Amino acid sequence: MVVYAGQGDPRRSIELLWRGSVVESRPGPKPGLSVDAIVDAGIAVADEQGIAFSMRAVGERLGRTAMALYTYVPGKNELVDLMYDRTMSELPGAYSLDDGWRPAVTQWAHDMWEFYGRHPWVLQVSQARPVLGPHEFAVIEALAAILVSTGLPGRQLRGIVGAINYFVRGAAQTITEARAAGGATGEADEEWWYARSAVLMELEPELDKKFPMLHVLENDREPIDPSLPYLENDALENFRSGLLVLLDGIEAAVAKP
Amino acid sequence: MVVYAGQGDPRRSIELLWRGSVVESRPGPKPGLSVDAIVDAGIAVADEQGIAFSMRAVGERLGRTAMALYTYVPGKNELVDLMYDRTMSELPGAYSLDDGWRPAVTQWAHDMWEFYGRHPWVLQVSQARPVLGPHEFAVIEALAAILVSTGLPGRQLRGIVGAINYFVRGAAQTITEARAAGGATGEADEEWWYARSAVLMELEPELDKKFPMLHVLENDREPIDPSLPYLENDALENFRSGLLVLLDGIEAAVAKP
DNA sequence: CAGGTTACTTTACGGCGTAAGGAGTGGCAA
DNA sequence: TTGCCACTCCTTACGCCGTAAAGTAACCTG
Question: Which residues of A fall within a CB distance of 8 Å from B1?
């Protein structure tokens, strides 16, 4: 299932995202934790365990119980919001337009691709949630800044920003899943994939005849980087060639009246 | 969190997906349920509650306990696999190429768009899982059949199929979320959205200055269909204009040497 | 008609997010 | 200096979840 980020109290979430924690002198024991520390711990845990991490696990990493976190953060949904935005701060806020928009968009897309590879759990946060945090804004702003330089109108740019964003996310998700597949069971992704397709071939030997066009799609394969596992090569190739098509589409839109 | 479909025993999953239930005369009480009935009930429950439906809810809809389902289906993951593939049977298996590939791809994309609107939970099943079931194959086969007619090589087609698929999924997810946003609390999506952006404007009044390019992106808006809610109009417009860019990109690839 | 297989139930376990209440800390007003 | 009380953090507990285990009753086959 999906964690819907942005489901908590909007005011509280947005305050946490934009204000940071305001430190005053206050009665009571000195806080041993902080929102920042909790968000960092959450990211570390999620990098290892995925979005299905538990509040207990985050607390444990900080030497506290799960309930201690609730002093700083309203709940798991809000924590995910904060983690989501925090990780995005790893990404550049602007790209050079010296060589035009095309290399800049390409760089943006590759940066996102690698980012998702570092933090696969980000892809498991609902991708349709509204943009909320400052770093998230900055990432989209960076892409928008590149594309505005094409001179296309807002109406078209919105579609293009969406298309690029969805495409990179989707492509990254295939490679993420390829890596994670064996994760739980410890199988390498190759083995896991072959186990499934072997069973499929056994049960449905005429598969190629039933879906001839899919068979055609399988032609013309050669690894980009032979040191990478098969599925990763595949995902990388699809990412690159799909991105080229998208960029050509933008170029066509720019060239038109 | 994400339900990873295809995490169960591969043989059992694939047998259920491709073989259907084999009926023999057997000792013991007559089965009151069937895999089909369970899958249908699961789809109905998921249409209402999303992917976070419970086995208890599915059982209840059939007048049984949750545990009764385990006689027919190995677990929730496998049930989701079956539900996923079953819903895909709603989609056409082939498209007319009389007017060329472009209208056919457009129709495919719109059919998918509406399909996701009917079954939003499908978008919450990990999008990167390997294709497993016959109807899922058929849907991709239909798209592949259209695109093979362009004469492009497999290498490029794989990227294109991926790009279209990711784009449609992503675009559909935004509208799905727009609809679901108020769902839990009963707010209309408009109100929910405005509540959030109002708080954001209050806390960060200089937002437009901080992210000027995003502000540019907001220009040039007019509703496609004024009877639709604001956010749905937005999503629909982005879907259509993004798709045009993608199609232009394919056209450019076809025109090239 | 017995035996064994099957459908389905009840009960239970270990996980989850988090509500409620209690213990101890330490700044500040009296 | 004292005592209040806001504060952090803990323990306990509740109601969910998926599903393992074991029991009950139905039915086909010998």
Answer: 1-3, 50-52, 124
Query: A33: which DSSP letter?
Result: -
Nucleotide closest to A24 measured between CA and C1': C27
pLDDT in tens, B184-231: 444 555 666 777 788 888 888 899 999 999 999 988 788 788 888 777
Q: Terminus-to-terminus CA distance in chain A, angstroms?
A: 45
Count of beta carbons in the 10 Å neighbourhood of residue B227:
7
Tokens of A66: 């799960």
Query: What contacts A37, CB < 8 A, 6 or more positions away?
Result: A62
- Which residues have CB under 8 Å from A29's CB, separation 6+? none
**Which residue type occupies A48?**
E
Residues of B in contact with A2 (CB under 8 A): 1-2, 50-51, 124
**Homologous superfamily, domain B10-88:** Homeodomain-like (1.10.10.60)
Give domain B101-255's CATH number out of 1.10.150.130, 3.40.50.10810, 3.40.190.10, 1.10.357.10. 1.10.357.10
A84 pLDDT higher than 60? yes
Does the C-beta of B72 come within 7 A of strand D? no
Report the share of chain B in percent with pLDDT over 90.
65
Surface of A (75-114) touching B: CB under 8 A: none
CB B94 within 8 A of CB B108: no
β-partners of residue A125 are: A3
